[in-house]
Design a protein that fits this description.
The protein has 258 residues and is an alpha/beta fold. It is built from eleven helices and ten strands.
């Protein structure tokens, strides 16, 4: 049976590619199972510093595989296949100690936007379009709202969750769903630029910096100052921190960036 998700690693970057263009990379049970497996392997591999999530064809992900969802039994939520695997995958992406770049090869819809929002960086070509189309099918963007609402501006989320309207990549970047919208012919160079910058950071420092962005804003001011002062001291005296300081003084690259 042909793989629906491929993975390759080179120069510290693991590229995970959804490859089911015949159904616009819809989130089928098999694709989700393979995606979870490839993600776990990349997370477990010491040589992998950065993960890139992408897809083949002209659509990054069209959302849930509706043919499988049609088989769900009315009134039995547990029988809706996509709800079993997608939350775990979004958690793997969101909680990954390794930075994750979403390289959108094209359009994304519905559940696919949950994957986009779960990644640390999301780069899309300006030709891509986006929509939370769930309400037009009588369903809601419930699972994906957990990651999406941590990225998007509240007014914009209300606008697109409720209308299902299609919006372009520039608008997606404006409202926080994307990191960057770039000309189509600059997509790969932009992704490589981010991956290259991320490889220069200390692995432990990158994992902690990810948490800071999410956790510090919720801390009371004085508690935040106290806890972050302790964390700063800890990092300056850590093995990784000391290596970085020595490398700077010696005008060389630290071991993790060689």
């Amino acid at each position: 049976m042909e793989e629906l998700v491929h993975a390759r690693a080179a120069d510290g970057v693991a590229t995970i590619t959804m490859d089911s263009p015949r159904n616009r990379n819809a989130l089928s049970v098999r694709l989700l199972d393979e995606l979870a497996d490839r993600l776990r392997r990349a997370l477990d591999e010491d040589g992998v510093r950065v993960i890139v999530l992408t897809a083949t064809g002209t659509v990054f992900c069209s959302g849930a595989d509706l043919r499988e969802q049609r088989a769900a039994e009315p009134g039995r939520p547990a029988s809706a296949p996509v709800t079993e695997a997608l939350p775990e995958i979004m958690s793997l992406l969101w909680n990954s100690p390794k930075p994750v770049i979403c390289r959108l090869n094209g359009t994304a819809r519905a559940g696919g936007l949950g994957l986009v929002a779960a990644c640390d960086f999301a780069i899309a070509p300006r030709s891509a379009s986006f929509a939370f189309s769930e309400v037009r099918l009588g369903v809601v963007p419930a699972m994906i709202s957990v990651t999406v609402l941590r990225r998007m501006e509240p007014r914009a989320a209300a606008e697109y969750f409720l209308t299902g309207e299609v919006f372009d990549a520039d608008r997606a970047a404006q409202i926080g769903l994307l990191t960057r919208a770039v000309p189509d012919d600059e997509l790969d160079a932009t992704v490589e630029h981010y991956a290259g910058m991320l490889r220069l950071g200390g692995p432990e420092a990158l994992a902690i910096a990810k948490r800071l962005v999410r956790e510090v804003p919720a801390l009371p001011l004085e508690e935040g100052m106290r806890r972050m002062a302790g964390l700063s001291a800890e990092r300056f005296t850590s093995e990784e921190g000391q290596e970085g300081i020595r490398a700077f003084a010696e005008k060389r690259r630290p071991y993790w960036a060689r």
